[in-house]
User: What shape does this take?
Amino acid sequence: MMVLITYDVNTTTEAGKKRLRHVAKQCINYGQRVQNSVFECLVDPVQFAQLRHRLEEIIDKEKDSLRYYYLGNNWKNRVEHVGTRATFDPEGTIIV
Amino acid sequence: MRKLLNVLYVTTPDAFLAKDGENLVVRLQDKEVFRTPIHYLEGIVTFGYMGSSPALLGLCAERGVSLTFLNEHGKFLASVSGPVKGNVLLRRKQYRMADSAGDCTKLAARFIMGKIANSRTVLRRFISDHGDKCNLSRIERISKGLAKNIVKVSNATSLEEIRGIEGETARDYFSVFDDMILNQKESFFMKERSRRPPMDKVNALLSFFYTLLVNENRSALEAVGLDPYVGFLHRDRPGRPGLALDLMEEFRPYLADRLALNLINRRQITGEDFVKKESGGVILKEEARKTVLEAWQKRKRDELTHPYLNEKIPVGLLPYAQALLLSRYLRGDLDDYPPFVWK
Assistant: This one.
């Protein structure tokens, strides 16, 4: 299934900046960065549970926020891209 | 059934593959050109002499992602495999059976039966789709001959006999291959199967698909814990994945031959997509390889109902499904190995 993950991490402190880096790193491990704090992650339920767990360990729930948008398996009908920053289709043919 | 994941094909010659966290990163002259989480991938196939970091090799091995290096003509160079997985008892059983002439004959007969049946279906399909377009009596005749050979091979009592029938069938089948090429006749023709090197464009295309197919069969066998190098029909030879070649026999007509015919008949590739080498061998040009790989990946995503498992699976998982059935047979959970027969 495709999950869209967005976050806001409060970076006014050094600790906040560190959390931001860690959140971003975990998201990159599981998905594709489509905008600055927006990731598309194609994951199975197990992988998603892992990712969620890791992210929620990192963030400070008092200061930061995380949002998951569940796009399901037919996610391609629900996503449209306009403008720069080309992405790749993880289920399409990938030739580099 | 497992999910069919993607395969990344790297055709840019000076690309470098590296690991970053859980990501695969492709770099070109130190500039990042592609990045993907490793769990999106089932395998990575590279063409030409590119580098890869040891860390990435390790990640691929650990995650069971097959990493295959081919040279720029598609010839196999090397692949990376991690610690041997699966059940040692299963592999021992495989070796014992590969040493027994009776078991080899039985299994080889199944593989070849599947191959002949599927070759015949390629011909039958052609007759029903294009029956009005050319003189079909030759194809009809060969198709009848193949039907007889299916029976013959299932009664065969030795490997030599099976090899004989197989050779005869392949010659007959490829003798009408040219009749199934309907368009672009001036650049695509086939007199006989030639390989190492392929001497004409049709053979070049077939060889290319067969290379892709061997790799997928090899990974499928490794995934279920069988040793791809110990075959039943194909005998041991250093560096030759005998069992992958055995298993692939059933898929050649269905996956490779038909796709090659479609690409030619639909004019998706043209005579200009090939180059002739000094040796007389013919190879696909680099840009054309992309078209062909795209067609191949698209084909793998088509779905079909597996005739034995009675389950809807993507075509790309067929080698895996058959490897699974083969391991069940070797383990003794099935009385016989059911080859994939396309109806």
